[in-house]
TrEMBL record:
<dbReference type="Pfam" id="PF00814">
    <property type="entry name" value="TsaD"/>
</dbReference>
<dbReference type="InterPro" id="IPR000905">
    <property type="entry name" value="Gcp-like_dom"/>
</dbReference>
<feature type="binding site">
    <location>
        <position position="182"/>
    </location>
    <ligand>
        <name>substrate</name>
    </ligand>
</feature>
<keyword id="KW-0808">Transferase</keyword>
<feature type="domain" description="Gcp-like">
    <location>
        <begin position="26"/>
        <end position="309"/>
    </location>
</feature>
<dbReference type="GO" id="GO:0061711">
    <property type="term" value="F:tRNA N(6)-L-threonylcarbamoyladenine synthase activity"/>
</dbReference>
<comment type="function">
    <text>Required for the formation of a threonylcarbamoyl group on adenosine at position 37 (t(6)A37) in tRNAs that read codons beginning with adenine. Is involved in the transfer of the threonylcarbamoyl moiety of threonylcarbamoyl-AMP (TC-AMP) to the N6 group of A37, together with TsaE and TsaB. TsaD likely plays a direct catalytic role in this reaction.</text>
</comment>
<keyword id="KW-0963">Cytoplasm</keyword>
<protein>
    <recommendedName>
        <fullName>tRNA N6-adenosine threonylcarbamoyltransferase</fullName>
        <ecNumber>2.3.1.234</ecNumber>
    </recommendedName>
</protein>
<keyword id="KW-0819">tRNA processing</keyword>
<dbReference type="InterPro" id="IPR043129">
    <property type="entry name" value="ATPase_NBD"/>
</dbReference>
<keyword id="KW-0408">Iron</keyword>
<feature type="binding site">
    <location>
        <begin position="136"/>
        <end position="140"/>
    </location>
    <ligand>
        <name>substrate</name>
    </ligand>
</feature>
<dbReference type="GO" id="GO:0005506">
    <property type="term" value="F:iron ion binding"/>
</dbReference>
<feature type="binding site">
    <location>
        <position position="186"/>
    </location>
    <ligand>
        <name>substrate</name>
    </ligand>
</feature>
<feature type="binding site">
    <location>
        <position position="275"/>
    </location>
    <ligand>
        <name>substrate</name>
    </ligand>
</feature>
<keyword id="KW-0479">Metal-binding</keyword>
């Protein structure tokens, strides 16, 4: 059988990325142009600035992905692109580039859900086994997804307010740490010699939903009250307390869901899955339960196009095709 090559394109947030994946499992090239340096000045992602960066970078990044792979467009089988969710202006840059490329080279185009991409990042390091439970934790998402087969996604829990990464970024701002806050809090917490106890939001006993806004408020109130009394905060202790609360809730709910649905594999995905303490906590938990647990290397946890190509490859095999009327879908459902 002939090898399959999929070009993946991702522009849903602040990374402009293109990648070529072979047979759905092997990265041939993987190019990511990050805007983090530029967005740092604003303490977060400014949609209009993100769009402008994507416009400047997109053709360069696609060219580079082809060059590194040493492939001609005619050797590709399809173009997979993030259709949603994300910033609509940002999504449209990737989608229009994908459409133009697909039209010019007579290739099929496949619209991929960003979260399906994060989940399929695992396929690049480890074959997926079903039923599978995925914990997706990123700047825009906190979700528990049950997969019974390829392409089937059952949402069993999600955040009711802030996403985990959003909480990280907001708490980091309170602690005067640079953007993105996740890696900073991760580092501070690891070095800390103590912790401030913050609450955990368990919600209803049978719920797999999450809530992080109460925790965020608790952190803000603690700092405010302490400073009102003339005290000075210990940022490391606060970071450790915040992170312990997040990791405790994420681990406990993932464990409970894995047991209830008797899954054969658990995976973590998304930017927050780069967190060292979360990785360690999940690894230990599922080692005890004897359920295989995987999390992709950090460069495949944060936004990239290899994951979009990997998800697109599976969709391609299943006969899924989009067409040139594709539009950006900021609130796209899995
Ligand atoms: O998946 P991602 O790159 O973009 C989105 O789709 O949102 O995730 C970015 C998020 C940011 O909120 C960032 O602070 C968080 O992932 N993050 C981390 C770590 N590295 C990135 N959060 C906690 N610990 C980390 N080491
Ligand atoms: Zn993402």
């Amino acid at each position: 059988k002939k090898d399959q090559y999929i070009l993946g394109i991702e522009t849903s947030c602040d990374e402009t990325a293109a990648s070529i994946v072979k047979n759905g499992i092997e990265i041939v090239s993987n190019v990511v142009a990050s805007q983090i340096e530029s967005q740092k000045r604003f303490g977060g992602v400014v949609p209009e600035i993100a769009s402008r960066h994507h416009v400047e970078q997109i053709t360069i990044v696609i060219e580079e992905a082809l060059q590194q792979a040493n492939l001609k467009p005619s050797e590709l089988d399809a173009v997979a692109v993030t259709e949603g969710p994300g910033l609509v202006g940002a999504l449209l840059i990737g989608i229009n580039a994908a459409k133009a490329f697909a039209f010019a080279h007579q290739l099929p185009i496949i619209g991929v859900h960003h979260i399906a991409g994060h989940i399929y990042a695992n396929q690049l390091v480890q074959r997926m086994e079903f039923p599978l439970l995925a914990l997706i934790v990123s700047g825009g998402h906190t979700e528990l997804v049950l997969m019974r087969e390829h392409g089937s996604f059952e949402l069993i829990g999600e955040t009711r307010d802030d996403a985990a990464g959003e909480a990280y970024d907001k708490v980091a701002r309170v602690l005067n740490l640079p953007y993105p806050g996740g890696p900073e809090i991760d580092r501070l917490a690891a070095e800390s010699d103590g912790e401030i106890e913050f609450p955990r939001a368990w919600l209803e006993p049978d719920s797999y939903d999450f809530s992080f806004s109460g925790l965020k408020s608790a952190v803000i109130n603690y700092k405010h009250n302490l400073e009102q009394r003339g005290g000075t905060v210990n940022p490391a202790h606060m970071a450790a307390g915040f992170q312990n609360s997040v990791v405790d809730v994420l681990t406990t709910k993932t464990k409970k869901a894995a047991e209830q649905y008797q899954v054969r594999q658990v995976i973590a995905a998304g930017g927050v899955a780069a967190n060292k303490q979360l990785r360690a906590s999940l690894t230990e938990t599922f080692l005890e339960l004897n359920i295989p647990f995987y999390v992709p290397p950090i460069y495949l946890c944060t936004d990239n196009a290899a994951m979009i190509a990997a998800a697109g490859a599976s969709m391609y095999e299943n006969g899924v095709r989009s067409n040139l009327s594709m539009n950006g879908r900021p609130g796209m459902e899995l």
